[in-house]
Amino acid sequence: MGTDKPRIQSYLEPEVYRDLQEFQALQGLRESAAVNQILKEYFGWSDSSASISSFQSPSLDELKLLIQEELWGEGKSDFIDGIKAHAKNVIAEEVTEAKEYWHSIDTRERVDRHQIEIAKLQERIETLEKICQPIEEAESQQNHSGGLQEIQDRLEALEDSVELLLNEPATPTSNSLDLTRSPLSTARYENVKLLPEAISVPIIEAIEGGKVQEVDELSNLPSELNLSQLAVEDFQWTGDNAIELNLSQLARRLGISKSVLSRRKSQADFLEWSKANKAKDPEGRTWHYNPERQIFRGMFL
């Protein structure tokens, strides 16, 4: 098993390392156990019979003589077998310890990988829930059995009607506007007004028989009307000219990301931005955002 004991590492001088190996061999200890024993005795923690106080490193000649006597003496066979057995045991213990250590490392890495995968799955679930929530709300608000499919069919029908209206030529006159032949012939305007409020006299008083009757001189109107001055929310569209889409639908229609559209919709100049980018719309519509209903309305302006 792994251990929580501190680990040390050192680079020894050749002479010091030779003495360590000799102490290890004579005491029958592994290298780590020999270092541990030496340090414990040095700091006064050792109560073992294996002590370095009486250990004297033999000279090279003495060591050669000792090995020669052991190898060629009566205990030659036992000595060699003992060395082999000791080496085998040390190697086996080192291999076991290394396997246990690396197994613990691998286990932690696998746990970390699983935690990362779990976090990714949780993010995907949250994203899917955000996508499904408005769809489920839209379905629950329908009073018919068609659900989203009926909404899609209705939208396609509206687009077909708009296409037909776009093919009708408009024939305005110099002093009046003929609505019977314009693309807005099926639409009815109510509470039409211009901003700012400084224009106190209404320019348009009524719509009678498809004609907009003048009630004041047109010279009072500005030469160019800024779209940001037009109170679009005051138009009540009852015909098929305007269409309404949510954020996801409009993003797909314009071919832009939802994040860009979401950021733009909260800005005051969204209508101007939409007008400048109406080439992105397949029909060239300008889009207005209603924050109360959280819906986008597309019109021909």
User: What is the CA–CA distance across the termini?
Assistant: 77 Å
| Overall form | rod-shaped
- What fraction of the residues are assigned to beta strands by DSSP? 5-15%
Main pleated-sheet profile: 3 strands, antiparallel
Helix fraction by DSSP (H/I, runs of at least 4): 40-55%
Radius of gyration: 45 Å
- Helical stretch tally: 8
* Strand order in space, largest sheet: 3-5-4
Low-confidence runs? 170-239
Series of secondary-structure elements, N-terminal to C-terminal: HHHHHEEEHHHEE
Q: What's the pLDDT, averaged over the residues?
A: 64
Q: Give the number of DSSP strands.
A: 5
* Class based on secondary structure composition and strand pairing: mainly alpha
Keywords: Coiled coil, Plasmid
Coiled coil: 104-168
